[in-house]
Amino acid sequence: MRPISALLTGTVTAASGPMDDYAHQHGYPPYPHPHYDHRQGGPRSPVSPVPQSRTMIGGGGSFANLIHDDYRPVMDSLKDIYRRKIRPLETTYNFEEFHSAPLTDSDIEAKPIVLLIGQYSTTDRFVAVMSGIESRVIPGNAAAMTADLPFRGLNKFGQAFLTRFQVSQCPSPILENMTLIDTPGILAGNKQRIERGYDFTKTIEWFAERADLILLFFDSYKLDISDEFKSSIYALKGQEEKVRVILNKSDMVSQQQLMRVYGALMWSLGKVIQTPEVMRVYLSSFWIKKPVNAFEDCRTLLDAEQADLVRDLKELPRNAAIRKVNEIVKRARQAKVHAYIIGHLKKEMPAVFGKHSRQQELIRDLDKEFNKLQQCHGIPEGDFPNVDKFRQSLRAYKFENFSKVKEPILLAVDEALGVDLPKIMRRFPQGNTLESDPLQTNPFSGIVSPTVWTAGSEIPPSYFHFSSVDRASAAPIFQSLYPINDKISGAAARPYLMSTGIAVEVLAKIWSLADWDSDGQMTLDEFSVALHLVRAVENGGEEVLPETLPRTMIPCY
Protein backbone atom coordinates (compact mmCIF):
# COMPACT_ATOMS: atom_id res chain seq x y z
CA MET A 1 0.00 0.00 0.00
CA ARG A 2 1.29 3.43 -0.84
CA PRO A 3 2.04 5.42 2.34
CA ILE A 4 -0.65 8.04 1.63
CA SER A 5 -3.40 5.42 1.39
CA ALA A 6 -2.24 3.82 4.61
CA LEU A 7 -2.11 7.24 6.25
CA LEU A 8 -5.61 8.18 5.07
CA THR A 9 -7.26 4.91 6.11
CA GLY A 10 -5.69 5.06 9.55
CA THR A 11 -3.77 1.80 9.23
CA VAL A 12 -0.52 3.53 10.13
CA THR A 13 0.17 6.58 12.23
CA ALA A 14 2.75 9.30 12.20
CA ALA A 15 3.78 8.34 15.73
CA SER A 16 3.59 4.57 15.66
CA GLY A 17 5.46 4.05 18.91
CA PRO A 18 3.11 6.06 21.20
CA MET A 19 0.11 4.68 19.34
CA ASP A 20 1.24 1.11 19.98
CA ASP A 21 1.35 1.92 23.69
CA TYR A 22 -2.03 3.63 23.58
CA ALA A 23 -3.70 0.73 21.79
CA HIS A 24 -2.24 -1.75 24.26
CA GLN A 25 -3.27 0.27 27.31
CA HIS A 26 -6.84 0.84 26.08
CA GLY A 27 -7.54 -2.63 24.82
CA TYR A 28 -7.52 -2.01 21.07
CA PRO A 29 -6.66 -5.15 19.10
CA PRO A 30 -3.99 -5.34 16.39
CA TYR A 31 -5.31 -4.07 13.08
CA PRO A 32 -4.81 -6.67 10.31
CA HIS A 33 -5.33 -4.49 7.27
CA PRO A 34 -6.56 -6.82 4.49
CA HIS A 35 -4.52 -5.01 1.86
CA TYR A 36 -1.45 -6.93 2.97
CA ASP A 37 -2.94 -10.42 3.01
CA HIS A 38 -1.49 -11.28 -0.40
CA ARG A 39 2.05 -10.45 0.66
CA GLN A 40 4.04 -12.68 2.98
CA GLY A 41 5.31 -10.88 6.02
CA GLY A 42 3.50 -7.64 5.19
CA PRO A 43 3.46 -5.02 7.92
CA ARG A 44 0.51 -4.81 10.26
CA SER A 45 -0.33 -1.76 12.33
CA PRO A 46 -2.53 -1.10 15.36
CA VAL A 47 -5.99 0.32 15.02
CA SER A 48 -6.33 4.03 15.47
CA PRO A 49 -8.10 5.02 18.69
CA VAL A 50 -10.45 7.20 16.66
CA PRO A 51 -13.98 5.72 16.81
CA GLN A 52 -14.72 4.05 13.50
CA SER A 53 -18.39 5.03 13.29
CA ARG A 54 -17.70 8.66 12.45
CA THR A 55 -16.27 10.51 9.52
CA MET A 56 -13.01 12.44 9.75
CA ILE A 57 -12.68 13.85 6.24
CA GLY A 58 -15.87 15.16 4.70
CA GLY A 59 -17.17 16.48 8.00
CA GLY A 60 -20.13 15.62 10.16
CA GLY A 61 -20.16 11.87 9.63
CA SER A 62 -22.48 12.03 6.60
CA PHE A 63 -21.79 11.58 2.92
CA ALA A 64 -23.62 14.81 2.17
CA ASN A 65 -24.05 14.48 -1.58
CA LEU A 66 -24.70 10.76 -2.08
CA ILE A 67 -26.45 9.18 0.87
CA HIS A 68 -28.02 12.19 2.54
CA ASP A 69 -31.82 11.95 2.34
CA ASP A 70 -32.05 15.30 0.53
CA TYR A 71 -29.91 13.96 -2.33
CA ARG A 72 -31.45 10.52 -2.69
CA PRO A 73 -34.22 11.78 -5.05
CA VAL A 74 -31.55 13.55 -7.12
CA MET A 75 -29.55 10.35 -7.57
CA ASP A 76 -32.70 8.37 -8.36
CA SER A 77 -33.59 10.92 -11.05
CA LEU A 78 -30.08 10.71 -12.50
CA LYS A 79 -30.28 6.92 -12.74
CA ASP A 80 -33.71 7.14 -14.38
CA ILE A 81 -32.54 9.68 -16.98
CA TYR A 82 -29.54 7.54 -17.87
CA ARG A 83 -31.58 4.33 -18.18
CA ARG A 84 -34.39 5.84 -20.28
CA LYS A 85 -32.65 8.39 -22.48
CA ILE A 86 -28.91 7.77 -22.70
CA ARG A 87 -28.35 4.04 -22.38
CA PRO A 88 -30.58 3.17 -25.41
CA LEU A 89 -28.27 5.29 -27.58
CA GLU A 90 -25.21 3.45 -26.26
CA THR A 91 -26.80 0.04 -26.89
CA THR A 92 -27.97 0.86 -30.42
CA TYR A 93 -24.57 2.03 -31.67
CA ASN A 94 -22.23 -0.44 -29.88
CA PHE A 95 -20.82 2.25 -27.60
CA GLU A 96 -19.55 -0.42 -25.20
CA GLU A 97 -17.29 -2.01 -27.80
CA PHE A 98 -15.58 1.27 -28.67
CA HIS A 99 -15.50 3.04 -25.31
CA SER A 100 -16.81 1.60 -22.03
CA ALA A 101 -19.58 -0.63 -20.72
CA PRO A 102 -22.98 0.85 -19.77
CA LEU A 103 -23.20 2.28 -16.28
CA THR A 104 -24.98 0.34 -13.56
CA ASP A 105 -26.85 1.79 -10.60
CA SER A 106 -23.87 0.94 -8.39
CA ASP A 107 -21.59 2.91 -10.75
CA ILE A 108 -23.76 6.00 -10.45
CA GLU A 109 -24.18 5.67 -6.68
CA ALA A 110 -20.51 4.85 -6.04
CA LYS A 111 -18.61 6.89 -3.47
CA PRO A 112 -15.86 9.19 -4.77
CA ILE A 113 -12.90 7.20 -6.07
CA VAL A 114 -9.27 8.26 -5.62
CA LEU A 115 -6.89 6.52 -8.04
CA LEU A 116 -3.25 6.19 -6.92
CA ILE A 117 -0.64 5.65 -9.66
CA GLY A 118 3.10 5.39 -9.14
CA GLN A 119 6.18 3.99 -10.85
CA TYR A 120 7.64 1.74 -8.19
CA SER A 121 5.97 -1.48 -7.16
CA THR A 122 4.35 -1.65 -3.74
CA THR A 123 1.99 -4.48 -4.70
CA ASP A 124 1.45 -6.91 -7.56
CA ARG A 125 -2.22 -6.12 -8.05
CA PHE A 126 -4.99 -3.56 -8.20
CA VAL A 127 -6.55 -3.13 -4.76
CA ALA A 128 -9.79 -1.27 -4.04
CA VAL A 129 -9.66 -0.14 -0.41
CA MET A 130 -13.24 0.36 0.77
CA SER A 131 -15.22 0.82 3.96
CA GLY A 132 -16.58 -2.26 5.71
CA ILE A 133 -17.95 -3.33 9.08
CA GLU A 134 -15.01 -5.68 9.52
CA SER A 135 -11.68 -6.32 7.83
CA ARG A 136 -11.98 -8.74 4.93
CA VAL A 137 -10.73 -9.38 1.41
CA ILE A 138 -13.02 -9.98 -1.58
CA PRO A 139 -11.22 -11.69 -4.50
CA GLY A 140 -11.46 -10.09 -7.93
CA ASN A 141 -13.85 -12.60 -9.50
CA ALA A 142 -16.32 -12.28 -6.64
CA ALA A 143 -16.02 -8.47 -6.57
CA ALA A 144 -16.71 -8.22 -10.31
CA MET A 145 -19.92 -10.24 -9.88
CA THR A 146 -21.25 -8.34 -6.85
CA ALA A 147 -24.04 -5.97 -7.85
CA ASP A 148 -23.45 -3.67 -4.87
CA LEU A 149 -19.87 -2.92 -5.94
CA PRO A 150 -19.02 -0.66 -8.91
CA PHE A 151 -16.64 -3.17 -10.52
CA ARG A 152 -18.81 -5.31 -12.80
CA GLY A 153 -17.30 -3.64 -15.85
CA LEU A 154 -13.93 -5.22 -15.03
CA ASN A 155 -15.13 -8.59 -16.34
CA LYS A 156 -14.13 -7.52 -19.84
CA PHE A 157 -10.43 -7.62 -18.88
CA GLY A 158 -10.60 -11.36 -18.28
CA GLN A 159 -9.34 -13.85 -15.77
CA ALA A 160 -5.71 -12.72 -15.97
CA PHE A 161 -6.70 -9.33 -14.58
CA LEU A 162 -9.31 -10.50 -12.05
CA THR A 163 -6.77 -12.77 -10.35
CA ARG A 164 -4.70 -9.62 -9.75
CA PHE A 165 -7.57 -7.53 -8.42
CA GLN A 166 -9.11 -7.53 -4.97
CA VAL A 167 -11.34 -5.45 -2.72
CA SER A 168 -10.01 -4.86 0.79
CA GLN A 169 -12.58 -3.66 3.29
CA CYS A 170 -11.84 -2.23 6.71
CA PRO A 171 -13.64 0.01 9.25
CA SER A 172 -12.01 3.39 8.61
CA PRO A 173 -13.64 6.85 8.93
CA ILE A 174 -12.00 8.07 5.72
CA LEU A 175 -13.42 5.21 3.68
CA GLU A 176 -16.99 6.03 4.68
CA ASN A 177 -16.73 8.89 2.19
CA MET A 178 -14.40 7.60 -0.52
CA THR A 179 -12.77 4.56 -2.12
CA LEU A 180 -9.03 4.29 -2.76
CA ILE A 181 -7.76 2.35 -5.79
CA ASP A 182 -4.13 1.33 -5.32
CA THR A 183 -2.41 0.24 -8.53
CA PRO A 184 0.60 -2.02 -9.16
CA GLY A 185 3.93 -0.31 -9.66
CA ILE A 186 4.67 0.70 -13.24
CA LEU A 187 7.32 -1.50 -14.85
CA ALA A 188 10.59 0.11 -15.93
CA GLY A 189 13.63 -0.84 -18.00
CA ASN A 190 13.86 -4.49 -19.05
CA LYS A 191 10.85 -5.31 -16.90
CA GLN A 192 8.66 -3.59 -19.49
CA ARG A 193 9.00 -6.67 -21.67
CA ILE A 194 7.39 -8.88 -19.03
CA GLU A 195 3.89 -9.88 -20.12
CA ARG A 196 1.30 -8.98 -17.49
CA GLY A 197 -1.40 -11.10 -19.10
CA TYR A 198 -3.82 -8.16 -19.40
CA ASP A 199 -3.83 -4.69 -20.92
CA PHE A 200 -2.50 -2.55 -18.10
CA THR A 201 -3.09 0.74 -19.90
CA LYS A 202 -6.71 -0.15 -20.65
CA THR A 203 -7.38 -0.95 -17.01
CA ILE A 204 -5.85 2.37 -15.95
CA GLU A 205 -8.12 4.09 -18.48
CA TRP A 206 -11.17 2.25 -17.09
CA PHE A 207 -10.46 3.31 -13.52
CA ALA A 208 -9.54 6.86 -14.58
CA GLU A 209 -12.93 7.35 -16.24
CA ARG A 210 -14.64 6.50 -12.96
CA ALA A 211 -12.23 8.24 -10.60
CA ASP A 212 -12.99 11.59 -9.00
CA LEU A 213 -9.34 12.32 -8.25
CA ILE A 214 -6.17 10.84 -9.79
CA LEU A 215 -2.89 11.11 -7.87
CA LEU A 216 0.38 10.55 -9.78
CA PHE A 217 3.28 9.76 -7.46
CA PHE A 218 6.92 10.67 -8.06
CA ASP A 219 9.83 10.36 -5.65
CA SER A 220 12.08 13.38 -5.27
CA TYR A 221 15.14 11.36 -6.33
CA LYS A 222 13.49 9.18 -9.03
CA LEU A 223 11.96 11.41 -11.67
CA ASP A 224 12.41 9.18 -14.72
CA ILE A 225 9.22 8.33 -16.64
CA SER A 226 9.28 4.80 -18.06
CA ASP A 227 7.55 3.83 -21.31
CA GLU A 228 4.73 2.05 -19.48
CA PHE A 229 4.22 4.98 -17.12
CA LYS A 230 4.13 7.29 -20.13
CA SER A 231 1.46 5.07 -21.72
CA SER A 232 -0.52 5.17 -18.49
CA ILE A 233 -0.37 8.97 -18.42
CA TYR A 234 -1.51 9.08 -22.05
CA ALA A 235 -4.47 6.91 -21.00
CA LEU A 236 -5.58 9.76 -18.73
CA LYS A 237 -6.33 12.00 -21.71
CA GLY A 238 -9.72 13.60 -21.26
CA GLN A 239 -9.44 13.33 -17.47
CA GLU A 240 -6.83 16.07 -16.99
CA GLU A 241 -9.01 18.06 -14.59
CA LYS A 242 -8.88 15.15 -12.14
CA VAL A 243 -5.09 14.71 -12.15
CA ARG A 244 -2.87 15.91 -9.32
CA VAL A 245 0.85 15.17 -9.01
CA ILE A 246 2.51 14.32 -5.70
CA LEU A 247 6.25 14.79 -5.36
CA ASN A 248 6.77 12.42 -2.46
CA LYS A 249 9.75 12.20 -0.07
CA SER A 250 10.45 15.88 -0.62
CA ASP A 251 12.25 16.05 2.70
CA MET A 252 15.01 13.76 1.40
CA VAL A 253 16.58 16.69 -0.47
CA SER A 254 17.58 20.13 0.72
CA GLN A 255 15.62 23.28 -0.06
CA GLN A 256 17.96 24.23 -2.90
CA GLN A 257 17.86 20.72 -4.36
CA LEU A 258 14.08 20.60 -4.03
CA MET A 259 13.77 23.69 -6.21
CA ARG A 260 15.82 21.96 -8.92
CA VAL A 261 13.88 18.69 -8.56
CA TYR A 262 10.57 20.55 -8.89
CA GLY A 263 11.75 22.23 -12.09
CA ALA A 264 12.99 18.94 -13.54
CA LEU A 265 9.66 17.26 -12.76
CA MET A 266 7.66 20.03 -14.45
CA TRP A 267 9.92 19.77 -17.51
CA SER A 268 9.42 15.99 -17.69
CA LEU A 269 5.66 16.27 -17.28
CA GLY A 270 5.49 18.93 -19.97
CA LYS A 271 6.80 16.41 -22.52
CA VAL A 272 4.20 13.78 -21.55
CA ILE A 273 1.06 15.71 -20.62
CA GLN A 274 0.10 17.70 -23.69
CA THR A 275 -1.83 20.56 -22.08
CA PRO A 276 -0.96 24.27 -21.93
CA GLU A 277 -2.04 24.45 -18.27
CA VAL A 278 0.45 23.84 -15.50
CA MET A 279 -0.25 20.64 -13.56
CA ARG A 280 -0.84 21.03 -9.81
CA VAL A 281 2.06 19.44 -7.93
CA TYR A 282 1.95 18.79 -4.19
CA LEU A 283 5.27 18.70 -2.35
CA SER A 284 4.75 16.07 0.31
CA SER A 285 6.40 13.45 2.43
CA PHE A 286 4.31 10.47 3.51
CA TRP A 287 6.62 8.40 5.64
CA ILE A 288 5.34 5.66 7.91
CA LYS A 289 8.37 6.51 10.04
CA LYS A 290 10.40 9.61 9.20
CA PRO A 291 14.09 8.86 8.50
CA VAL A 292 16.68 10.42 10.74
CA ASN A 293 18.41 12.03 7.74
CA ALA A 294 15.32 13.96 6.60
CA PHE A 295 15.83 17.67 5.88
CA GLU A 296 13.76 20.09 7.97
CA ASP A 297 14.42 23.35 6.09
CA CYS A 298 11.19 22.99 4.05
CA ARG A 299 8.95 21.56 6.78
CA THR A 300 6.61 24.57 6.83
CA LEU A 301 6.17 24.38 3.05
CA LEU A 302 5.54 20.62 3.14
CA ASP A 303 2.95 21.01 5.89
CA ALA A 304 1.15 23.69 3.87
CA GLU A 305 1.19 21.48 0.76
CA GLN A 306 -0.16 18.53 2.73
CA ALA A 307 -2.94 20.77 4.06
CA ASP A 308 -3.88 21.66 0.47
CA LEU A 309 -4.01 17.99 -0.48
CA VAL A 310 -6.20 17.13 2.50
CA ARG A 311 -8.47 20.04 1.58
CA ASP A 312 -8.88 18.57 -1.92
CA LEU A 313 -9.80 15.23 -0.38
CA LYS A 314 -12.28 16.89 1.96
CA GLU A 315 -14.08 18.46 -0.98
CA LEU A 316 -14.61 15.14 -2.76
CA PRO A 317 -17.66 13.93 -0.79
CA ARG A 318 -19.24 17.38 -0.72
CA ASN A 319 -19.26 17.70 -4.52
CA ALA A 320 -19.69 14.04 -5.43
CA ALA A 321 -23.27 14.26 -6.72
CA ILE A 322 -22.47 17.27 -8.90
CA ARG A 323 -19.51 15.40 -10.39
CA LYS A 324 -21.79 12.44 -11.12
CA VAL A 325 -24.01 14.73 -13.18
CA ASN A 326 -20.93 16.10 -14.93
CA GLU A 327 -19.74 12.58 -15.81
CA ILE A 328 -23.17 11.64 -17.19
CA VAL A 329 -23.14 14.79 -19.35
CA LYS A 330 -19.65 13.95 -20.69
CA ARG A 331 -20.72 10.38 -21.41
CA ALA A 332 -23.92 11.47 -23.17
CA ARG A 333 -22.02 13.90 -25.41
CA GLN A 334 -19.48 11.19 -26.20
CA ALA A 335 -22.21 8.66 -27.01
CA LYS A 336 -23.98 11.16 -29.24
CA VAL A 337 -20.84 11.83 -31.29
CA HIS A 338 -20.26 8.07 -31.50
CA ALA A 339 -23.79 7.59 -32.85
CA TYR A 340 -23.21 10.20 -35.56
CA ILE A 341 -19.97 8.46 -36.60
CA ILE A 342 -21.53 4.99 -36.79
CA GLY A 343 -24.61 6.28 -38.60
CA HIS A 344 -22.46 8.19 -41.09
CA LEU A 345 -20.31 5.14 -41.88
CA LYS A 346 -23.46 3.08 -42.42
CA LYS A 347 -24.84 5.74 -44.77
CA GLU A 348 -21.61 5.79 -46.83
CA MET A 349 -21.75 2.06 -47.55
CA PRO A 350 -23.01 0.90 -51.00
CA ALA A 351 -26.25 -1.06 -51.20
CA VAL A 352 -24.97 -4.13 -53.09
CA PHE A 353 -21.48 -4.27 -54.63
CA GLY A 354 -18.04 -3.08 -53.47
CA LYS A 355 -18.80 -3.13 -49.74
CA HIS A 356 -15.40 -4.43 -48.66
CA SER A 357 -13.37 -1.96 -50.71
CA ARG A 358 -15.59 0.94 -49.63
CA GLN A 359 -15.18 -0.02 -45.97
CA GLN A 360 -11.39 -0.10 -46.31
CA GLU A 361 -11.49 3.31 -47.96
CA LEU A 362 -13.60 4.77 -45.15
CA ILE A 363 -11.24 3.36 -42.53
CA ARG A 364 -8.20 4.76 -44.35
CA ASP A 365 -9.76 8.23 -44.68
CA LEU A 366 -11.45 8.25 -41.29
CA ASP A 367 -9.98 11.65 -40.39
CA LYS A 368 -11.64 13.14 -43.48
CA GLU A 369 -14.97 11.57 -42.48
CA PHE A 370 -14.60 13.18 -39.05
CA ASN A 371 -14.14 16.55 -40.75
CA LYS A 372 -17.35 16.02 -42.74
CA LEU A 373 -19.29 15.26 -39.57
CA GLN A 374 -17.77 18.25 -37.81
CA GLN A 375 -18.94 20.61 -40.54
CA CYS A 376 -22.34 18.94 -40.98
CA HIS A 377 -23.40 18.78 -37.32
CA GLY A 378 -21.25 21.52 -35.77
CA ILE A 379 -19.47 19.08 -33.46
CA PRO A 380 -16.42 20.55 -31.68
CA GLU A 381 -13.16 18.92 -32.76
CA GLY A 382 -12.32 17.98 -29.19
CA ASP A 383 -15.46 15.82 -28.89
CA PHE A 384 -14.24 13.31 -31.48
CA PRO A 385 -12.41 10.16 -30.30
CA ASN A 386 -8.77 9.46 -31.09
CA VAL A 387 -8.79 8.71 -34.81
CA ASP A 388 -6.07 6.02 -34.69
CA LYS A 389 -7.70 4.10 -31.85
CA PHE A 390 -11.12 4.35 -33.44
CA ARG A 391 -9.74 3.21 -36.80
CA GLN A 392 -8.24 0.15 -35.12
CA SER A 393 -11.54 -0.72 -33.42
CA LEU A 394 -13.50 -0.38 -36.67
CA ARG A 395 -11.49 -3.15 -38.36
CA ALA A 396 -13.36 -5.76 -36.30
CA TYR A 397 -16.79 -4.82 -37.71
CA LYS A 398 -18.77 -4.86 -40.93
CA PHE A 399 -20.14 -1.40 -41.57
CA GLU A 400 -23.19 -2.83 -43.35
CA ASN A 401 -24.40 -4.16 -39.98
CA PHE A 402 -24.24 -0.77 -38.28
CA SER A 403 -27.44 1.08 -37.37
CA LYS A 404 -28.56 4.20 -39.20
CA VAL A 405 -29.02 7.49 -37.39
CA LYS A 406 -32.33 7.29 -35.51
CA GLU A 407 -33.66 10.72 -34.71
CA PRO A 408 -35.98 9.72 -31.81
CA ILE A 409 -33.05 8.26 -29.86
CA LEU A 410 -30.90 11.34 -30.51
CA LEU A 411 -33.77 13.65 -29.54
CA ALA A 412 -34.11 11.81 -26.22
CA VAL A 413 -30.42 12.45 -25.50
CA ASP A 414 -30.80 16.11 -26.51
CA GLU A 415 -33.72 16.40 -24.09
CA ALA A 416 -31.62 14.87 -21.32
CA LEU A 417 -28.75 17.28 -22.01
CA GLY A 418 -30.90 20.37 -22.55
CA VAL A 419 -33.72 19.92 -20.04
CA ASP A 420 -33.45 17.04 -17.59
CA LEU A 421 -29.84 17.32 -16.42
CA PRO A 422 -29.92 21.15 -16.03
CA LYS A 423 -33.09 20.69 -13.97
CA ILE A 424 -31.20 18.31 -11.68
CA MET A 425 -28.37 20.84 -11.29
CA ARG A 426 -30.87 23.46 -10.08
CA ARG A 427 -31.83 21.14 -7.23
CA PHE A 428 -28.39 21.36 -5.66
CA PRO A 429 -27.88 24.00 -2.94
CA GLN A 430 -26.06 27.14 -3.99
CA GLY A 431 -23.05 28.61 -2.23
CA ASN A 432 -19.88 27.31 -0.69
CA THR A 433 -20.75 24.65 1.87
CA LEU A 434 -17.18 24.58 3.08
CA GLU A 435 -17.30 28.16 4.27
CA SER A 436 -20.65 27.83 6.03
CA ASP A 437 -19.87 24.50 7.71
CA PRO A 438 -20.14 24.98 11.49
CA LEU A 439 -17.66 22.13 11.92
CA GLN A 440 -14.95 24.53 10.78
CA THR A 441 -15.36 26.54 14.02
CA ASN A 442 -17.17 24.56 16.72
CA PRO A 443 -17.89 20.98 15.63
CA PHE A 444 -20.80 20.66 18.08
CA SER A 445 -22.65 23.92 17.40
CA GLY A 446 -26.18 23.70 16.06
CA ILE A 447 -26.67 20.14 17.36
CA VAL A 448 -29.24 19.41 20.06
CA SER A 449 -29.09 16.29 22.20
CA PRO A 450 -32.28 14.84 23.72
CA THR A 451 -30.56 14.01 27.00
CA VAL A 452 -27.76 15.49 29.08
CA TRP A 453 -25.32 13.11 30.76
CA THR A 454 -24.47 14.03 34.34
CA ALA A 455 -22.61 12.51 37.25
CA GLY A 456 -22.01 13.74 40.73
CA SER A 457 -18.69 14.37 42.42
CA GLU A 458 -16.84 17.46 43.59
CA ILE A 459 -13.93 18.88 41.58
CA PRO A 460 -11.09 20.51 43.60
CA PRO A 461 -9.99 24.04 42.55
CA SER A 462 -6.48 22.81 41.78
CA TYR A 463 -7.97 20.75 38.95
CA PHE A 464 -8.35 23.93 36.89
CA HIS A 465 -4.64 24.55 36.52
CA PHE A 466 -2.56 23.53 33.51
CA SER A 467 -0.07 21.71 35.74
CA SER A 468 -2.79 19.12 36.44
CA VAL A 469 -3.45 18.49 32.72
CA ASP A 470 -2.20 15.09 31.53
CA ARG A 471 -0.58 16.31 28.33
CA ALA A 472 1.45 13.10 27.83
CA SER A 473 -1.67 10.92 27.63
CA ALA A 474 -3.36 13.32 25.21
CA ALA A 475 -0.38 13.44 22.81
CA PRO A 476 -0.86 10.02 21.11
CA ILE A 477 -4.59 10.67 20.67
CA PHE A 478 -3.80 14.07 19.17
CA GLN A 479 -1.29 12.53 16.73
CA SER A 480 -3.82 9.88 15.67
CA LEU A 481 -6.12 12.66 14.43
CA TYR A 482 -3.50 13.69 11.83
CA PRO A 483 -2.72 17.29 12.84
CA ILE A 484 -1.84 19.73 10.07
CA ASN A 485 0.58 22.49 11.01
CA ASP A 486 0.38 21.12 14.58
CA LYS A 487 -3.39 21.71 14.76
CA ILE A 488 -6.49 19.54 14.34
CA SER A 489 -9.79 20.78 12.94
CA GLY A 490 -13.18 20.42 14.55
CA ALA A 491 -14.13 17.79 11.98
CA ALA A 492 -11.11 15.71 12.98
CA ALA A 493 -11.66 16.05 16.75
CA ARG A 494 -15.42 15.53 16.74
CA PRO A 495 -15.53 11.71 16.33
CA TYR A 496 -13.23 11.10 19.29
CA LEU A 497 -14.97 13.59 21.57
CA MET A 498 -18.39 12.21 20.61
CA SER A 499 -17.22 8.75 21.68
CA THR A 500 -17.07 9.94 25.30
CA GLY A 501 -20.87 9.77 25.50
CA ILE A 502 -21.19 13.34 26.78
CA ALA A 503 -24.09 15.38 25.38
CA VAL A 504 -23.20 17.44 22.33
CA GLU A 505 -24.26 20.75 23.90
CA VAL A 506 -21.83 20.07 26.75
CA LEU A 507 -19.10 19.17 24.25
CA ALA A 508 -19.86 22.44 22.45
CA LYS A 509 -19.19 24.33 25.67
CA ILE A 510 -15.99 22.34 26.29
CA TRP A 511 -14.79 23.17 22.77
CA SER A 512 -15.51 26.88 23.26
CA LEU A 513 -13.58 26.88 26.53
CA ALA A 514 -10.58 24.89 25.30
CA ASP A 515 -10.29 26.73 21.96
CA TRP A 516 -9.04 29.84 23.74
CA ASP A 517 -7.81 31.58 20.58
CA SER A 518 -11.18 30.91 18.83
CA ASP A 519 -9.58 29.86 15.54
CA GLY A 520 -11.74 26.75 15.13
CA GLN A 521 -8.72 24.46 15.54
CA MET A 522 -6.85 22.94 18.46
CA THR A 523 -3.18 22.69 19.30
CA LEU A 524 -1.95 19.86 21.50
CA ASP A 525 -2.23 22.12 24.57
CA GLU A 526 -5.82 23.07 23.73
CA PHE A 527 -6.77 19.47 23.00
CA SER A 528 -5.19 18.36 26.29
CA VAL A 529 -7.30 20.93 28.14
CA ALA A 530 -10.41 19.74 26.28
CA LEU A 531 -9.82 16.15 27.43
CA HIS A 532 -9.13 17.48 30.94
CA LEU A 533 -12.54 19.20 30.94
CA VAL A 534 -14.17 16.03 29.59
CA ARG A 535 -12.87 14.13 32.61
CA ALA A 536 -14.19 16.89 34.88
CA VAL A 537 -17.68 16.49 33.42
CA GLU A 538 -17.46 12.71 33.75
CA ASN A 539 -16.65 13.11 37.45
CA GLY A 540 -18.84 16.04 38.42
CA GLY A 541 -21.39 16.70 35.69
CA GLU A 542 -21.72 19.66 33.36
CA GLU A 543 -22.27 22.10 36.22
CA VAL A 544 -18.58 21.90 37.14
CA LEU A 545 -17.59 23.65 33.90
CA PRO A 546 -16.63 27.32 34.40
CA GLU A 547 -18.34 30.05 32.41
CA THR A 548 -14.96 31.20 31.08
CA LEU A 549 -11.69 29.32 31.00
CA PRO A 550 -9.50 30.26 34.00
CA ARG A 551 -6.22 31.85 32.98
CA THR A 552 -4.41 29.20 35.00
CA MET A 553 -5.55 26.64 32.40
CA ILE A 554 -3.61 28.43 29.64
CA PRO A 555 0.07 27.37 29.71
CA CYS A 556 1.45 30.84 28.94
CA TYR A 557 0.10 32.18 32.26
From TrEMBL:
GO terms for molecular function: calcium ion binding; GTP binding. Keywords: Calcium, Cell membrane, Endosome, Membrane, Metal-binding, Nucleotide-binding. Residues 69-321 form the Dynamin-type G domain. Pfam families: DUF5600, EH, EHD_N. Residues 502-537 form the EF-hand domain. It is found in: Cell membrane; Endosome membrane. One of its GO terms (cellular component) is plasma membrane. Its main location: membrane. GO terms for biological process: endocytosis; endosomal transport. SUPFAM superfamilies: EF-hand, P-loop containing nucleoside triphosphate hydrolases. It comes from the Eukaryota. Residues 470-557 form the EH domain. It is a peripheral membrane protein. This is Uncharacterized protein. It comes from Actinomortierella ambigua.
